[in-house]
Amino acid sequence: MKTPIRKTAWLLLALAAMLLSCSGDRSKYRIGVSQCSSDVWRDKQNAELKMGAYFNEDIELKFATAYDSDTRQIQQIDSLVESGIDLLIVAPNQIQTISPAIDRAYDKGIPVIVFERKTSSQKFTAFISADNYEMGRTMGKYVVTRLKGRGQVLEVKGLEGSSPAIERHNGFIDAISDAPDIKLVGSIQGDWTEESAVEAAGQWLAENPGTAIDYVFAHNDRMAMGARRVLSAEGRQSRTEYCGIDGLPGENGGIQLVRDSLLDASYIYPTHGDQIIDLAVRILEGQPYEKETMMMSALVTRDNAKVLLMQSEELMRQADKLDLLHEKADSYLHKLATQRIVNGLALGIIALLVVVFVLFYLYHLRKIDLQRERVVNTLWNIKPENVPATAVQSQPEEPEVPQQPEESAPATVSVFITRLKEVIEARLENSDVSVEDLAADMNLSRVQLYRKVKAITGSSPVELLRTARLNRAYHILLTTDKSVSEVAYAVGFTAPSYFTKCFKDEYGMVPGDVRK
Ligand code: FRU
């Protein structure tokens, strides 16, 4: 009876442990995004990357921004790889410097998507960008047309060593070299920021005081506006036109600058973060993908700026609505997550209660065992170390009888025990005494006696009778000169040899040794 209860208790404990160890969900794919810079263009792209990931619940994005520092970007790529990402999306600050870090990631088996800026190595899984050479060339041809083939041009270059700067420059030079009367009066070095163009243009102006500039081509809109700030402030370059690249929508974006005639032209440099995520998912899921993707882009001029702005504003309005929807969904998911935590806590508490209950129950069972042991021991003054294991374990000498709830009142138990002791003590000399006789003396049926004695002491009446006989024998051996056979007969054993065997089992020595 005790064993199934204990089994159930252990089962409950295991269940509780399982509930307690319930762990949270983890996204299937962790994608690291290493951005070289932080600016409006990157902000737009990061928002699109998040949007792309949003539509795919298996994706978790980890962003790192190097703020135009090679060293920082190298460290960030290494630590993204360390953190166990499944794929790396990277825009390397400069071609040569970042390549070793990208190679390390690739060599560790992490798929790498290089986007928009190139690396010097072939260790990448896919490349996605717009065609920077083509953009430079288109801008060059546009400038030639605008100047009707004659005029002085200044170029403001992007960060030295970054692939878009190199390619935009090459495309631009190739285009204007076809026009003999277009003179490139300078190629000044910026680093993609507006401030870098302000500085470079100021220095150029100081070094070339008398040189007129008809057109400024900057590798991005921010630098075009920086150059404009310096050159138009001088008042000398009032007829100078400016063009850049990026053509961002929105407030103070390239399209609006063209519409407002602050820039003469721009070129849309697509961000398309969601497209990059789609590519990442294809790679991660082993679907076919293009090793090299060239994104579409377009020239922004005063002729189409208004329409483009209208369209982009409409798109942004839709995007804002989507954002709002996402926020709502986010807050819903957040609530859901909180609910999960609450549920988890509740489960945890229940599990803890189960554990406490089970431990308490096991403790209680053990206490009952000890109590029974004590009852038997005190009954016949048996020392605990001499109590045979059989006295406290269930040994179905009698046929197993379904147990009734045991009597609990200690007083009733002790009255019963005292009476039982008297009955056994009175009968033990008689070798013919049976359990029926003992039961009759106790006014119980044989079955009732067995059930009660077993429930209280854990031993059967027969075992108790034998223990009492041996205990009496021990006492007689100590206090008289009777022989072992006489003692055996005196305590109701019919065969001295069997008595000796039982005595040895009980006390670990033969009866003769007691007197020694
Ligand atoms: C954004 C940016 C753009 C530019 C591109 C070149 O970080 O500076 O303005 O077109 O990077 O990689």
Write the layout of secondary structure elements.
Blueprint lengths: L1 H19 L8 E7 L4 H15 L4 E7 L4 H13 L4 E4 L4 H13 L4 E4 L10 E5 L1 H15 L4 E7 L5 H14 L5 E8 L4 H14 L7 E4 L2 H13 L7 E3 L10 H6 L5 E3 L5 H12 L7 E4 L3 E3 L3 H75 L30 H18 L7 H7 L4 H12 L3 H19 L4 H7 L5 H12 L9
Parallel strand pairs: 1-2, 1-3, 3-4, 4-5, 5-11, 6-7, 6-8, 8-9
Antiparallel strand pairs: 10-12
Helix pairs in contact: 1-11, 2-10, 3-4, 5-6, 7-8, 13-14, 16-17
The structure holds beta-D-fructofuranose.
Tally of helical runs: 17
Percentage of residues assigned to helices:
55-70%
CA-based gyration radius: 47 Å
Low-confidence stretches: 381-408
CATH architecture of one domain: 3-Layer(aba) Sandwich
What does this protein structure show overall?
The chain is α/β, with parallel strands linked by helices. Among the domains are: 130-270 and 295-307, Response regulator (Rossmann fold, 3-Layer(aba) Sandwich); 382-515, Arc Repressor Mutant, subunit A (Orthogonal Bundle). Helices cover 55% and strands 11% of the residues. It is built from 17 helices and twelve strands. It has helices spanning 2-20, 40-54, 70-82, 95-107, 132-146, 163-176, 194-207, 221-233, 254-259, 273-284, 305-379, 410-427, 435-441, 446-457, 461-479, 484-490, 496-507; strands spanning 29-35, 59-65, 87-90, 112-115, 126-130, 151-157, 182-189, 215-218, 241-243, 265-267, 292-295, 299-301. It has a six-stranded parallel β-sheet with strand order 2-1-3-4-5-11, with helices on both faces. Strands 7-6-8-9 form a four-stranded parallel β-sheet. The chain has a two-stranded antiparallel sheet with strand order 10-12. β8 (215-218), α8 (221-233) and β9 (241-243) form a beta-alpha-beta unit. α1 (2-20) runs antiparallel to α11 and α2 (40-54) crosses α10 (273-284). The radius of gyration is 47 Å and the shape is rod-shaped. The protein starts with a helix and ends in a 9-residue tail after the last helix. The relative contact order is 0.08. Mean pLDDT is 88; it is low at 381-408. It binds beta-D-fructofuranose. Residues 37, 39, 41-42, 116-117, 158, 162, 164, 192, 220, 245-246, 269 line the site of beta-D-fructofuranose (FRU). Residues 37, 39, 41-42, 116-117, 158, 162, 164, 192, 220, 245-246, 269 line the site of beta-D-fructofuranose.
